[in-house]
Amino acid sequence: MEHEEVFPKILEACKSETDFVTKIAVLGNLLDWMDVDGIKSNIKTVTKGDKSITLLEKLLKQDFSAYTEIVIKNLRIIHELRDKKFPIHKEGEEVIDIFRDLEEEYPPKNWDVVWKKVLNLYIDSLKNLIQMFQK
């Protein structure tokens, strides 16, 4: 992997909001760094402007009719959190809604707890993808 330095960053404890923002940015980058060209080459219909998660969703719908929708839902939550969290954008109700969905208050008392929930969304999506690809 081209950017292997992301993995230690993901595994470090999340002690503050600054740590959380860094970690969510790194996790969002992993989503952006999917092999988009490889996915595109296997999809029948690619729309201009389709990005990594949308392309993955199209591939799953096309080749895995019984795919688990939570895979894409989890990845979109992570991506949206990365895109809506300060300093990427001015925070608004969207961030608070995501925290509510994670059953956390905003701002949280413990950033590490929230980080682990977000990381588990990613891990859950990866596990589901592996299971689908192994069938």
Number of helices: 7
Instruction: Measure the end-to-end span.
Output: 25 Å
Instruction: Please describe the biggest sheet, giving its number of strands, its sense, and whether it closes into a barrel.
Output: none
Helix content: 55-70%
Number of domains: 1
Number of beta strands: 0
> Rg, please?
16 Å
Shape: globular
The share of residues in extended strands comes to: under 5%
Sequence of secondary-structure elements:
HHHHHHH
Mean pLDDT: 90
Structural class: mainly alpha
* Unreliable residue runs: none
Characterise the protein shown here.
The protein has 7 helices and no strands. The protein has 135 residues and is mainly alpha-helical. The protein has one domain (6-134). The mean pLDDT is 90.
List the helices and strands and how they pair.
Blueprint: H1 6-11, H2 17-32, H3 36-40, H4 52-63, H5 70-84, H6 93-101, H7 111-134
Helix pairs in contact: 2-5, 2-7, 5-7
Annotation keywords:
single chain, 135 residues, mainly alpha, 7 helices, 64% helix
Give a quick summary of the entry.
The protein is built from seven helices and no strands. It has helices at 6-11, 17-32, 36-40, 52-63, 70-84, 93-101, 111-134. The longest helix is centred in the last third of the chain and has 24 residues, at 111-134.
